[in-house]
Design a protein that fits this description.
Helix content: 55-70%
Number of domains: 2
CATH superfamily of the largest domain: Band 7 domain
Oligomer: single chain
Number of helices: 6
CATH class of the largest domain: Alpha Beta
Distance between the termini: 74 Å
Order of helices and strands: HHEEHHHHE
Number of strands: 3
Strand order of the largest sheet: 1-2-3
Shape: elongated
Largest sheet: 3 strands, antiparallel
CATH topology of the largest domain: Tetrahydropterin Synthase, Chain A
Radius of gyration: 27 Å
CATH architecture of the largest domain: 2-Layer Sandwich
Structural class: alpha+beta
Length: 145
């Protein structure tokens, strides 16, 4: 009698686990499914096609007020032709980055809003050298003290 009760309990637990797992998988697959390719995602990916990435380098500068900043910057360019051209102008790009960063204070790099403003300024200043071929500036690392 005791053995029969144990077998019934084990079968009940296994049946419950099986129904729970099966129900969860079924709910995720059929009820909570996400569209794989909606027209909004296709339009967004078509309008924002990333260009080639060109590493500019690592920069360590003294900020206004005595703090320092160490950052690694990569830029996104419009196409491969622009990438080749800008590799030859590497020194001019680095000079612009150093000039912009050295004129900043610690408050100009601490918050996400301030970093976005810095990104926009760098894009503007770098495009003076790059003939508007730089579309984005990426901070791969950003350490300040």
């Amino acid at each position: 009698m005791n053995r029969k009760k144990l077998m019934t309990t084990i079968l009940t637990v296994l049946l419950g686990v099986g129904l729970g797992v099966g129900g969860t998988i079924g709910a995720q697959k059929f009820i909570f499914k996400t569209p794989t390719s909606s027209s909004a995602t296709v339009a967004a990916s078509a309008s924002k096609k990333a260009g080639p990435l060109l590493p500019i380098g690592e920069f360590t500068v003294n900020l206004q007020g005595g703090a320092f900043l160490k950052t690694t910057i990569t830029v996104e360019v419009t196409d491969a032709k622009a990438e080749v051209q800008l590799k030859t102008e590497d020194a001019f790009l680095k000079d612009r980055v150093n000039t912009v960063l050295a004129n900043k204070s610690l408050t100009d790099v601490q918050t996400p809003v301030a970093r976005e403003k810095l990104r926009e300024e760098l894009i503007k200043k770098l495009n003076e050298v790059a003939d508007n071929k730089i579309t984005d500036v990426l901070f791969l690392s950003l350490v300040y003290q």
